């Protein structure tokens, strides 16, 4: 499916940018930014496939993912001052990106025969673990621990997808609805500054 | 062996609680607590099996482990103020838990044909790496680096098990003795505040 | 090739020392130093092989690597005050070590059939990821993010090796040249305090 493949590459490109921007304000050099962009982009899918024992890893088997990452890093470097100010735009891309990667991750997990509960976790991992690795490397408490409903939105979308699948809804329809669920939950959370209750 | 299986699930349940409690005092939400509980519970065994190339991972192949984790997280949430005060009780459960997981980890490693030295390391990893992942995620110096004899006790128990195995001691007897070695070393260390020498 | 095998063991030995020294000044005990030495020594190669799905891992299949690590840790403990002052000497060993591991990592990746671009990344990972894991565990911003040209030198050497390989240069000649490229870039960078531009 060509559209899906294009979206995967575009998502990888944006994840690379988000990682390459993560070291702003730290004493780090350009290599560190590129390296962090790379790990952020591959982290979630790589963890999912290593846990599932599914080889070769996507970015090792298909070189286009590496090129998408390199392009993302180069764009970040050239337009550094510019892209680092586009916070709002990035939030939008990020939201669509995590929504899309969640559902792809669920499908990938189902395709190797795991149970739906595990597939839901793998979907969420695909979307968020790149960011968790990025934050751990750069010595931050992972942003998913702090910010408005994020990973929870991915989990909700994954569960939505798996539920509709039980009713044998058409895959493309299901994809649209489930991605929509994630995007809507996330955007509402940002708009109204919703977050889960904090620990005492 | 039904008792062993039950103990594995119970150990997973307690590891999930210990992880879910780890973010106390940090600016984190309930999702972060659940997520950390999950990674703490699966971390050690998952690392062991990924290093050994032993698939499917235990919690992916058997859904009951996921349910044990979810239960642990829910119990933590409901009884939050209560369980977070039970430090002493938890230390006891934790001690029995790491002892048990160490020996199971050793056996699992031996079952895929590695040498005893490697099996000892894998046993220790099974017991402690969930906690190391938990502490790294939450930006702490791993607690095993600081506290009274802990990982060392696991390593001692693993070596004890492997030594007795050489003499073809009955497995159940060996299990009891080796788990006992870990528990006794750990409890003595806590009681008398023993620790290995600090670095200068 | 006996020389190569000896060099691999020696490199592992020195990586273990560098890891065992990493906790100086932190509140950590001797076990923590040994543990960090172990993870530093195996980290890069292990990550490479897990990503490639290449089992068994080197140090699991060949016990001599574990012995080299244990020896490195013991030497560190016995000569602690002494080796911790040998910063300059270590920098030299470290430079030769990462150069050598980079090229071995590239060859290992090529041997399982990945593309050269991926092999270059795997070579760099082999050399640097042990240190990244060490720094993440000990709560530091990875040193490769901060210090003089380091990972970049590895990447340059990997690309050099892969380029010369295209021209079917003799492997041993290529090995020498590519290792030399890494060593020279790194030493010049240290000598003249060269680093990549910092992020704004």
TrEMBL record, chains A, B, C:
Keywords: Cell membrane, Membrane, Transmembrane, Transmembrane helix. It is a multi-pass membrane protein. PANTHER family: INNER MEMBRANE PROTEIN (PTHR30506), UPF0126 INNER MEMBRANE PROTEIN YADS-RELATED (PTHR30506:SF3). The chain crosses the membrane at residues 6-23, 30-51, 63-83, 118-137, 149-167, 173-190. Belongs to the UPF0126 family. Its main location: membrane. It is found in: Cell membrane. Residues 6-80, 92-164 form the Glycine transporter domain. The keyword Lyase does not apply. The keyword Membrane applies. InterPro entries: Gly_transporter. It comes from Imperialibacter roseus. Pfam families: Gly_transporter. This is Trimeric intracellular cation channel family protein.
């Amino acid at each position: 499916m060509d559209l899906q493949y294009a979206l995967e590459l575009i998502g990888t490109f944006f994840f690379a940018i988000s990682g390459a921007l993560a070291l702003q304000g730290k004493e780090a050099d350009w290599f560190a930014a590129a390296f962090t962009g790379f790990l952020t982009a591959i982290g979630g899918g790589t963890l999912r496939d290593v846990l599932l024992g599914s080889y070769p890893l996507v970015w090792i088997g298909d070189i286009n993912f590496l090129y998408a990452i390199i392009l993302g890093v180069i764009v970040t470097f050239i337009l550094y001052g510019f892209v680092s100010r586009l916070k709002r735009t990035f939030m939008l891309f990020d939201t669509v990106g995590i929504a899309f990667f969640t559902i792809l991750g669920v499908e990938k997990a189902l395709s190797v025969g795991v149970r739906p509960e595990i597939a839901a976790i793998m979907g969420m991992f695909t979307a968020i673990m790149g960011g968790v690795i990025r934050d751990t490397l750069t010595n931050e408490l992972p942003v998913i621990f702090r910010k408005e409903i994020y990973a929870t939105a991915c989990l909700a979308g994954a569960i939505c997808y798996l539920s509709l699948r039980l009713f044998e809804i058409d895959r493309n329809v299901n994809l649209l609805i489930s991605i929509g669920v994630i995007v809507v939950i996330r955007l509402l959370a940002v708009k109204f500054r919703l977050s889960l209750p904090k620990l005492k």
